[in-house]
Specification:
Elements: E1 41-45, H1 46-61, E2 66-67, H2 77-85, E3 91-93, H3 100-104, E4 109-112, H4 119-129, E5 133-138, H5 141-154, E6 158-162, H6 176-187, E7 192-194, E8 197-199, H7 210-233, E9 241-243, H8 249-254, E10 260-261, H9 271-275, E11 288-296, E12 302-305, E13 320-323, E14 331-335, E15 340-343, E16 358-362, H10 366-370, E17 375-380, E18 383-389
Parallel strand pairs: 1-17, 2-10, 3-4, 4-5, 5-6, 6-7, 8-9, 9-10
Antiparallel strand pairs: 1-11, 11-12, 11-16, 12-15, 13-16, 14-15, 17-18
Helix pairs in contact: 4-5, 5-6
Domain D-serine dehydratase-like: 287-380
Keywords: Lyase
EC number: 4.1.2.42
Length: 397
């Protein structure tokens, strides 16, 4: 992404001469310069994106570990296809409905990496299993029976992975007895098969220090390994141990325990992941940006942009100022619905030169930020190369 962009302007609205109505102008068109992209918009730097996808794929392949990227981060069929083209074995989705656009687009291997209950969700999962290779998670025997009966009636086979708690303290069983009960319950149904174990430690991804993150990841892998050994002692092979993410991928790949990893945010490297301590060449590139425009300079020392809470998630911190033609680097201080307030270096600094200035912001948390948009504006070398739909936006049932 270049260090600066030119004045961001919205194309003139098209008037329907027959009805007199005004059409909402497109955010951008292929071939547009960044100056023609309406703000706020979600920009994807394709050079960074391509490098990040290749980096994760090659690192995992070197250790014969599969990559199953998490689509909850990007929610985009185009991105999923790019990941599959780079060698991914499939994708993860966190909710059953989230998987629908990927099923319909022909992504043939999908793992629902979360528990679900209820007749409607079970029916939807079974319907998907008629079209794709589907795996799901359970952590209670009461989740198994409805799925097994429905799969058997439909004549489909679903891989079921008991989830084990390896430190997250959220979902997943925490005893070998519970794992054994789940495996036995799965084995009871012809429409189900034991697919391995889900062993995901979400909070480990966000540990700031490299050494502490490494140690937390190792402990999670050790816990997962203990469950594998328990099953093997009962004569049950564990074909898959899946888990891990962007923050621990380098350790999970080397663990010898995980057969596949589930990174998601690596394709973007949001502000939070970018703030972590990384070693060697494991830092990915920032590829996701908010294009915004300074809309008000009424007070010295303060500039106000058009990207507020409706444009960026703030659960992992406020967005970070990335670039501008201006020499100084404002600090994003507060967000309200439609406004982002940034402080200049000095409270007395004249803010007037910033009016109309385009700026780029790095979101703190990519997943919920992406969920606010209908499309990515995919750019390369300052030109719009594509508009990529975010098909799974809002599908959280």
């Amino acid at each position: 992404m270049p260090d600066s962009v030119n004045t961001v302007s919205m194309s003139a609205s098209a008037v329907n001469t027959a009805t007199g109505s005004i059409a909402v102008p497109p955010v951008a068109r292929v071939g547009d310069t960044l100056a023609q992209v309406a703000t706020p918009s979600l920009l994807l730097d394709l050079d960074a994106f391509d490098a990040n996808v290749e980096r994760m794929a090659s690192a995992a392949a070197a250790r014969a570990v599969a990559v199953r990227p998490h689509a909850k981060a990007h929610k985009s069929v185009t991105i999923a296809r790019a990941q599959m083209a780079a060698g991914a074995v499939g994708i993860c989705c966190q909710k059953v409905t989230e998987a629908i656009p990927f099923v319909n687009a022909g992504i043939g291997n999908i793992h629902i990496s979360n528990e679900f209950v209820g007749e409607a969700r079970v029916a939807l999962a079974v319907a998907m299993a008629a079209h794709v290779t589907l795996s799901v998670c359970v952590d209670d025997v009461r989740q198994v029976a409805p799925l097994g009966k429905a799969a058997q009636r439909a004549g489909v086979r679903i891989a079921v992975l008991p989830e084990v708690d390896v430190g997250q303290g959220r979902c997943g069983v925490d005893s070998t007895d519970a794992v054994a009960q789940l495996v036995d319950a799965i084995d009871h149904y012809e429409g189900l098969r034991f697919g391995g174990l889900q062993a995901y430690h979400g909070s480990a991804q966000h540990v700031d220090g490299w050494e502490k993150r490494r140690d937390t990841a190792r402990l999670a892998a050790d816990r997962a390994s203990a469950y594998v050994r328990f099953l093997e002692a009962r004569g049950i092979a564990c074909p898959v141990v899946t888990g891990g993410g962007t923050g621990t991928a380098e350790f999970d790949i080397e663990s010898g325990v995980y057969t596949e990893i589930q990174p998601g945010s690596y394709v973007f490297l949001d502000g939070h992941y970018g703030s972590l301590e990384w070693r060697d060449d494991w830092r990915f590139r920032h590829g996701l940006f908010l294009a915004s425009t300074v809309m008000s300079t009424a007070r010295n020392g303060i500039i106000v942009c058009d990207a507020g809470l409706k444009s960026v998630a703030t659960d992992s911190g406020l967005p970070r100022f990335w670039s501008s033609q201006q020499a100084s680097k404002p600090h994003y201080r507060t967000a309200s619905d439609e406004h982002g307030v940034l402080e200049l270096a000095s409270a007395d600094e004249d803010s007037a030169p910033w009016l109309g200035e385009p700026i780029l912001l790095v979101p703190g948390h990519c997943d919920p930020t992406v969920n606010l948009y209908d499309r990515y504006v995919a750019v390369r070398h300052g030109r719009v190369e594509g508009l990529w739909p975010i098909e799974a936006r809002g599908l959280s049932q």
